[in-house]
Write a structure and sequence with these properties.
It is built from 5 helices and no strands. Helix 3 runs antiparallel to helix 4 and helix 4 packs antiparallel against helix 5. By secondary structure, the protein is mainly α.
Length: about 100
């Protein structure tokens, strides 16, 4: 069962732990850390993007899309917004019957 260290509060530390678990292929644990990081830093687009990737890798396509939309809506960078929009379009195309 995936678990998270409840003592960790800093969103950047939580993000770093999520990245480490992702590198080890422990996607469920990585997602737990990223969820907590987003809860503590909801405007962090980079963490939202990693969380969306984690959801996708775990087979949660709709959650992944919702999270990508959140990231797109929060970003101020037009290039990042364009990349996220394209990524959302590609995921929607994959899901279409």
């Amino acid at each position: 069962m995936a678990a998270i260290d409840q003592r960790v509060k800093d969103p950047l530390v939580l993000d770093k732990a999520g990245k480490l678990f992702a590198q080890w292929g422990m996607w469920t644990t990585a997602v737990l850390y990223w969820q907590r990081a987003v809860g503590r830093s909801p405007g962090n687009v980079a963490i939202l993007r990693r969380l969306a990737d984690g959801y996708a890798r775990l087979g949660f396509a709709e959650r992944s899309l919702d999270t990508l939309r959140q990231a797109r809506d929060k970003t101020l960078d037009p290039d990042t917004k364009a990349v996220l929009t394209r990524q959302i379009e590609l995921m929607n195309e994959k899901r279409a019957p």
